[in-house]
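User: For documentation purposes, I need each entry recorded in a consistent format: the amino acid sequence on its own, followed directly by the corresponding structure tokens. There are two entries in this batch. Please keep commentary to a minimum and don't merge the entries.

Assistant: Recorded as requested. Entry 1:
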Amino acid sequence: MSIIAVFNGIFCMGEHVVGDLAAGTGYRIVTDKDLVAEATSLSGMPESKIERAFSSKTSVFNSFTHEKESSIAHLRLALAEVFCGQDFILHGFGTLLIPKEISHALTVCLIADMKFRTGAAAKAQGLPEKEAIKVIRRGDEDCAAWGESILRQNDPWDADLYDMVIPMHKTSLEEAANLIRKNAEKSVLDPTETSKRTCEDFMLASRAEAALAKEGHNVKVNAKEGALTLTINKHVLMLGRLEEELRSIAEKLEGVTSVETKVGKDFHRSDIYRKHDFEAPSRVLLVDDEREFVQTLSERLMMRDMGSAVAYDGDTALNLIKEDEPEVMLLDLKMPGIDGLDVLRQVKETRPEIEVIILTGHGSEADREMCMKLGAFAYLQKPLDIDFLSETIKKANEKIREKSAARNEHGTTAGSNV
């Protein structure tokens, strides 16, 4: 026996089955939490951002930051490093990251009908039926989004994805664990020289994908005995230059013998390939009730390689801040509902690290003084030159970077003195 991988939705008894399996086999359990911790160490990204890769709610800034894709690349690398050993049980979303070509991994899906799952939710957490159904559906949405991200299909319960599918509403915990264990003991799952080489290919491809992600790129990587194939799945105007840059990064990796680039099936869609510039502003939130103005502004900032999201009122902006992490906010003062002054006050009370640029056509000197007193980075009057606004955003972004670097340096220094 070598590797058992178990995927399940919530309230399908996955933890119980995996626990019984570990007790019966002596295998260690590797969970999504373990993969996230290792991916955090490999990437330097916060755990919260990597964990968000498992959620159906992608950051509104992701088209510029590529954080989800970078998180997945480093989760894949974390899993590849685990595959260097043997005899473990992988439990969770990470199961879908295992290449089908790795033949010595037994992949298992645990499913159950809604009646069983709502009953399990009531027993485990005391949830009433309606609330349990909501929780289960949210969990299933996350599973479907993960399947779409990894496999390009939104049915993570498809039997073709697994070696075994076990209906838990018809199977006891003991029966499920015994069934998995017996199948894992079959000689067909013994590691072979071919499957070991496939693991080596998986490791090299994962290393290359993570290295490219660290340079701001998002491409699919396949490996075969040292030969890498990089697939570009979004349209790019200067394809030759991009291919040259990708090859220059990948060729430096140990174990790489050759690098080939190609375009994928989605290359001719309207999406534009964007390399993430880690120094440029990529999390700018525009808050203004003048829809045509703010949409045009967003497009013009995008042309200057600045990633932005739009909110048309103060309530929406405050809700977005709770779910996402904007760094710079452009805020109008006069809006229906909560006005800009109240938004500024709440932002600085709850998220003081966000730099707020006031952009208004109706402000007064008293408004300007109040905004600056509350902590605004700048107070600008409409209409204004887009280049001047861009420079102001960059300066706000630089201030954020300097603060972050100072905090990191302080933390390192403090840690070295312990």
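Entry 2:
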Amino acid sequence: MADKIREFTDEEGRMKIVIPDDYQDCIRHLECFARLAGHEVTIYNDSSADEDELVRRFAGADALVLIRERTRITPALLDRLPRLRLVSQTGKVSNHINVADCSSRGIAVAEGKGDPGPTAELTWALVLCAMRHVPQEVARLKGGQWQGSLGRQLRGRTLGVWSYGRIGKMVAGYGRAFGMRVWVWGRAGSVAEARADGFEPAPSREAFFAESDVISLHVRLNAETRGLVTAADLARMKRDALIVNTSRAELVAPGVLEAALAAGRPGFAAVDVFEEEPVLGARHALLAMPNVVCTPHLGYVERDNYELYLGTAFDNLLAFAAGKPANLADPAVRIRP
């Protein structure tokens, strides 16, 4: 494989690399970006879902560096990129790309790693902001007004954490530190791990939704979990309860959250994720609802995490260029000539 990979660089070992979706124009300012010195790097600061436009941008690339799931890589797109040999993914591969589709076309996919801390911290920031109506009160003050609402404290209330994975575990710990009663719902293995850490399992799905004051979703999106949260689930929630989603918007059935909030159960929501991103021009129904706090998918978007995410992706790319591929999602992939 090493000899084949060296064929994909020029005489000086350089690769043509394209990085899409750098919304903040921050990548070139990261310390890890210096690792790509000597390679030809093109960065795009906007997002496109148009296949023809993506072909125009990616056609000359030996490698793509993808920031999480911002660009969807379809089989049809891959068929139009005959030069592409590597997709270096920040974090783990998700629903935006199919490894088998890439492998069947001789394209390697390298996976990276990230830190769950930033998303867990943002989750808790959203809980605090929503419970104390912080964005609304800031807007009132800047608009020349004074206090306009009564928020609620967290101590003594019940936090429901759906799925006790890396992020859910941290959020449960924050709830405990704030004096909340914390219980967990999810698959048997997740609940068992939470119980071993001293957290209470919810007795049933119905009780989890009906009795929690705050529910935070930390479930991975896949075919089984799409639309996992239903209208019936939300209708059981208290009128002053809060649901927080920093995982994936598609975990909630389409249109269900907006309808539930309009009906008053739950009373509040805080979301960091949307069905189609980026959301521009404030074109999403949740942004117009006064009982919702929205952020533009900031969960993992934090400087230290970006250094880790992009740094690992760049290291994987450099290893590939050197003929020593690492962290391939499919180690058996046969790189096309």
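Summary note for entry 2:
Residues 1-6 have pLDDT under 50 and may be disordered.
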